[in-house]
Amino acid sequence: MIKAVVFDFAGTLFGRPTYRWLSPQHLAVLRAPAPYIARMNAAERAVWAARDLTALANRSAHWTLFRLAGVPLTDEVFQRLHNPAFWLPYSDTAAALARVRPLKVGVLSNISWDIRPVFARESLSVDAFSLSYEIGFSKPSARAFEAACARLDVEPSECLHVGDDPVSDGAAVEAGLRFAHISTAPVGRREPVLLEALAGHGIT
Fold first, then answer.
1. In this structure, are residues 37 and 139 in contact, taking their beta carbons and an 8 Å threshold?
2. Is residue 23 pLDDT above 90, yes or no?
3. Which residues contact 97 (CB under 8 A, 6 or more apart)?
4. C-beta of residue 133 within 8 angstroms of C-beta of residue 113
5. Helix (H, G, I), strand (E, B), or coil: what is residue 12?
6. Largest CB tally within 10 Å, which of 46, 65, 124, 166?
7. Under a CB-based contact definition with an 8 Å cutoff, are residues 49 and 137 in contact?
8. Within 10 Å of residue 75's Cβ, how many Cβ atoms?
C-alpha cells in the first residue's frame, strides 16, 4: 500500500518558463552537458559529480562546464539558476499535490540551494524536503531515496517516487520504491502529466 509520494523538483513540480531567462547558448549547454563533461579532467569530473552536495561545488562545476563550452558565465546568470523567481510551478503541480492527500508528500531533489521558499511562495504544502546538499547524498544513490523515506517515516515499499529523469529518478526502483516516470518540458509547454502518473498507481 502506498503511504507517501515523493516528487522530484526540477522538471517535475517546477520548471523554467518559456521566456528567455537564459540565453539560448546557456540553455543549450545545460540541456546537453555531456560533450563538455567528457572533456573535464578527473578532478573537474569529481567536482561535477558532487555539484549538488555543496554550494561551492555547484559554482565550481558550472564555471568549468561553461568554460569548456566557450560560453561566458557571469555571476548574474549563475544566480538565476538559484533564484526562486526564475522557477515556476507547472500547471498541474498544485492539483497533483492536493490529489496525493491525505497521503504524505515529500520532495527529493538533487540541488545545492534551499527550494522551500519556492513552495512557500506558491502556498504548496510538503511534509518533508530531502535536498541533496542537506542529506549528503544525491540521486541515483539509494541512500538519497532512503533518506526521503525516513523523513516521511515510511518504508521504501510504501512510497512512490515521481520524476522526469529515467536514470537518477528511475533508481528509486533499485532502492525499493515504486516509480512513475513523466515527460517534461518548459513551463507553459508541458502537458498535465502528473495526475495521470498518480492515477497509474491508483492515486485518484
1. no
2. no
3. 7, 13, 105, 124, 125, 126
4. yes
5. coil
6. 65
7. no
8. 8
Interaxial angle between packed helices 24-31 and 55-69, expressed in degrees from 0 to 180 and rounded to the nearest 10: 110
Report the alpha-carbon distance of residue 155 to residue 202 in Å, rounded: 18
Q: Which residues contact 149 (CB under 8 A, 6 or more apart)?
A: 4, 6, 155, 156, 158, 159, 177
Q: Which of 18, 167, 7, 3 is nearest to 86 (CA)?
A: 18
Is there a contact between 162 and 10 (Cβ–Cβ < 8 Å)? no
Task: Report the amino acid identity of residue 177.
Answer: L
**Contact in structure between 112 and 53 (CB atoms under 8 Å):** yes
pLDDT, position 53:
95
Beta strands in the chain (DSSP E): 4-7, 14-15, 88-89, 104-109, 128-131, 159-163, 178-181
Residue 161, strand partner residues: 6, 179
Q: Which helix (H) or strand (E) holds 194?
A: helix 194-199
Q: Give the whole-angstrom CA distance, residue 128 versus residue 106.
A: 5
Q: Which residues contact 98 (CB under 8 A, 6 or more apart)?
A: none
* Mean pLDDT confidence for 167-171: 96
Contact between residue 114 and residue 131 where contact means Cβ atoms under 8 Å apart: yes
Distances (CA, A) of 200 to 83, 91, 174, 182, 204: 33, 19, 20, 11, 9
CB 143 within 8 A of CB 137: yes
